[in-house]
Structure prediction request, 103 residues.
Amino acid sequence: MTFDKLSDVYHSGTKNEENQPSHLLIADTNIRNERCTVEYGNPCQYFCPAAVYVMEQGKDTRLQIHLNPSNCVHCKTCDIMDPYQIITWVPPEGGGGPNYENL
Prediction:
């Protein structure tokens, strides 16, 4: 039995405030949007277990990084696996996060 990424986020019981500042900081989005696309194919959109990082078409039709920090399950994979080490995970405001009681 398998689940899609967003179902996994739901089952983790993650609760994050939608309107809080992002606790995932990207030091240079140009590296992510351009260099990482060419050299690695933006692995963050694949290694994140919660679909926090997605590449969306921008106004100029190029793909750009888009964050969904409210999906974050606080695994810190992005902080560890980022090939350029430009993603920084910091604790979110409000004490939100996953609730793994029901897994």
Q: What stands out?
A: The helical segments are 5-12, 29-39, 44-47, 77-81. The radius of gyration is 14 Å. The mean pLDDT is 81. The first strand starts at residue 24 and ends at 26.
